[in-house]
Predict the structure.
Amino acid sequence: MIKGHHFSRRDSIRKSAAATLGFSIIPAYLTSARAENNPRLPPSRRINLGCIGVGGRAAGVIPSLTRDGAAVPVAFCDVDFSTSNKRAENLESWPDVPRFNDFRVMLDKMGNDIDAVSVVTPDHTHFTAAIHAMSMGKHVYVEKPLTHTFQESEILMRAEKKFKVVTQMGNQGHTSSGAAQFRQMRDAGLMEDVYKIEAWKDPSLWFMKKKHRISAYPPEERPPESLHDWNQWCGPQEVMPFNSKYHPGGWRAFHKYGCGMFGDWGCHIIDFVHDYLKLGLPTEISPLRLDDYNQVIFPLSSHIRFRFPERGPRFPSVELMWRAGADCNPVFDAKYGDPQEDGSVRIPDFGNAGTLLHRKQGDYVIMRGHHGDASRIYPRVKMMEHMDAMKAPKPEYSHGTSFIQACMGNTTTTSPFSVSGELTQVLNLGMIAEYLNVDLKFDPENKQFVGNDEANVLLKGATPRPEWAQYYKLA
């Protein structure tokens, strides 16, 4: 049974830790801010964080949320508290914070003392942790991608409205000067008539290297002694025999637990074009190339074409090409390059990831990298004509601090679930194409595939194990 604790933000922040916990002396885990440059704020002026997931990406997320002293961890939850997988930094910085192995127990015992939670766990457990906290009135920061399935994102978008809490997905570039610049360029008309977008990512995850490829689930191994509960790690998904390829860091490769390269880096590469060009949901998803395709792990290389409908005048239908792995870089037309004194043409460096936007007019292209990278116009002579739109102010807050300040009522987040949920659904649709390896037609209005029952089942994903089924009925 999920216990509902509905406290207003002001009530929660107003209560001092001493009054809440009945201490005459505030305990160390509520007062210490271990970083030397981290100002100490009184309990009435800060957010108390319950941190679900302490290692991996949390090694960066938790410091980003607490950097300015407006938030402090009051509870840590992880199924494995070994100092491997980057956990040591957080555990050493906050040694007195109580530790839990089950977020349900943490929220049950310390719910009254927690204002917001960070969810930095494997993709397949983002949803259950997030909606449990939301149902208790807690603000939630969830690492990208938001969810493992299309339906889970749909539920979290409804939950954001129902529980009226502050939300943020951890695609850090969405709170950056690069994002502000992209919006300015759109508002200045520089993004009009974009009809083709090419997105790419070089191979950088273990399953995108031939020598590490597998096509069957790995055999059972003895779990490390530090792993508290393998069933808890598996969450709502099927419990497979433990193998070190899953935990601590290899789970992203598996369809059952992760979202592959598209679900991972797509959040940093196509987030600007999806949000600011209002792409919405696609009508067609076609896997053009899936090297070493199988239904256990994601492809060695993946090329997928998406078609998005027209959104209004000067925003025509768009073809988005996603390429990850081999042959991922787009072809850059020499007419957009920069002429050199020797008569040659300089082509820009593609880097390890990015997007290239093509306009119907063919007068220039827009190129940007990933995360918070700024956009550039080619040829550069065209960019010089629009320098006012290319210069963007630095945001007042970082991605992490904007979430904390939004929890305190001082600003709004840039990647709430109403924005990041639909982006994640696009990623989920691409993942389904990678799993089935068939062309798919999708109805954005009804949010169903057309003529493919197997694909529609995958929108929901596997039936959750009984102890987790209740979470899918909360919103």
